[in-house]
Specification:
It is built from one helix and seven strands, in the order E-E-E-E-E-E-E-H. By secondary structure, it is α+β, with helices and mostly antiparallel strands. The chain is flat and about 80 Å long.
Length: about 130
Amino acid sequence: MAITKSTYTGDGSTTLFTFSFPYLEEEDVTVQVDGSTVTNYSFANSSTISFNTAPAGGSTIVLFRNTGIDQVKSTFFSGSAIRAEDLNLNFTQTFYATQETDNEVVEAVSNSSTALTTANTALSTANTADTNA
């Protein structure tokens, strides 16, 4: 499974958070604190987010790649030259989006398995309570 996100817990004083996933443009990196997308940060370098103010202690900080797919990075026209760089950019865009989708599917399956286990436990508890009543 490709690494497409990094998760941290805020301590109220740390403002720099690193990530190791590649991306095409800074706009493809999304930052969330406690599930809400935030914009109070900048890039300290190509793999470090710098918050203007440290996230609160205990908050969940998630840095993840969300590659834009509304438009292809390079468009080809009839009669024009096709450059390998442009083809590679389009394939990389598709590759990154596929990795992100795959990771979301794996997480969704895991969450659904947990939900099923919880539901089965609740059903068992309810059946036991009904029997005892």
